[in-house]
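S.,

As promised, the fe (ii) ion run. Input:
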Amino acid sequence: MFKLTFLGHQGWSVQTDDYHLLIDPIITPYFRNALYARSWIFPPRAINLERLAGVNGVFLTHDHEDHFHVESLNYLPRDIYMYLSGNMSGAAERILREMGFQNVKRLFALEPIAFGSQMEMTLYPPPASPTEHWVLQPFIRGRNLRESLYNPVDCTVSPELLSMLRKNKVRRLGVVALANNTQHVLSPYHPTRYMPEMRTASSNFFPAGVLNCHFGMGELPLMDCLAIVGRGFLDEANPFGVYKEQAQDQLAGILQRYSYGECDIHGAQPGDVFAMHANRMQLMPEKSDLVVRSPEAEERLAQAEKQDFDFNPLAYEYEPMTGQSTLSPAEIQRLEEHLNKFALKITCHRMGMELINTNVSKDGKPFHEARLILILKNGDSDVYYEFWPSFTEFRRIDELPVHVLDLPDHYPHGYECWASDLLGLFESDLSAYQIMLFRNRVWSPRHGMHGNYNFITVLNDLFAPECAPDITYNLYRKAYERCRIPGAV
Ligand SMILES: [Fe+2]
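Predicted complex:
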């Protein structure tokens, strides 16, 4: 037997006669390691907890919380094997051990591991990616290469996998998963939402992304099934409502026509089962009982569907994620202590280096100190800081001298968010995405050197688990503590 079950979002179950492996299982109907606002998986579903008893091992591809979710992992028996991608954070490994998992192991790229007598997994590194570089992609095979699952996770196809397939003259694979992250389909965060005049150019972005990715997958040999996964979610913090890609079903249909029957292309539904039938991996008629309905998630999605998504982006005002609109003087002091530790990291980041480089005029003499302006919303009045790269510190200023956009040389970067949210991020109550995606404003008025990234990139880089191990560990630890208090999650 070689049976694949799609668990929803990007989770998979792989079963043979003597082994049951889960990949990136989100067991609850939602995910989020931070205290505030969850994301509910679309299409909605829950996992049948009774069916988890037979699981032998779990493979976790990376630390992103739609793949590594502490509350979900807490439902698993502690004697099973927890395999972490070798690139995952020390924080992830530490929390799993503290949760009582007795067998926590790291797996590294290109080192095959056998699971029972009929399954073997090899991990492949993805192509370069700014946000998914730490993923290791599982390639799992059964007794032959037609019994296989290749899951590129949030990335495109691994060059190392391609060279292995070519070297071995592999002509056909079983099931390949295609995740929506790969297609850069970020509808709710998309510029069209902010710049309606760009709608024409940008609305081509989605199908173009899918097609590029699909034809990028043309590098692979033929496959029996292409399963389009990771098809959306409802983020409670998302003012735009539900992010879901219904269009993927349509596109799957179009791509299906052009595959001339060589490949079955599915917008995968939770509970879909793929197994060998008539000499090829096929979508089976019966759904898996590993996946069950979640009335709670269905209700939330139904409510969210009623929201009106059209809004005026210029008038859009965001509330603090933490719900706290004013920090006390003691909290402001704590925030400043965090900021000044953070300043050193920014100086070592390319933003700090480029700000320093900007300080040299054409004839080689310093002409001003370029800095980042930080506008923190707090109660009725904003709090302002300037990040001075050559002093490696944030300095508070009482008011903005002029509108910062009028001084692009002095302020190549600007950033606005709630003071309480930034404190929550430093103190492991929020994940960076909860601020970055919906609850901030950012600008880089100076193009050219400073045009390719902004302070959101800095937050994404410097709060990534491998760059902020203590903050990440505390986030996981708090998530685990909440699991142990009935009714707290
Ligand atoms: Fe990811």
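The first helix runs from residue 70 to 73. The pocket of fe (ii) ion is lined by residues 62, 64, 132, 154 (CB under 6 Å).

- D.
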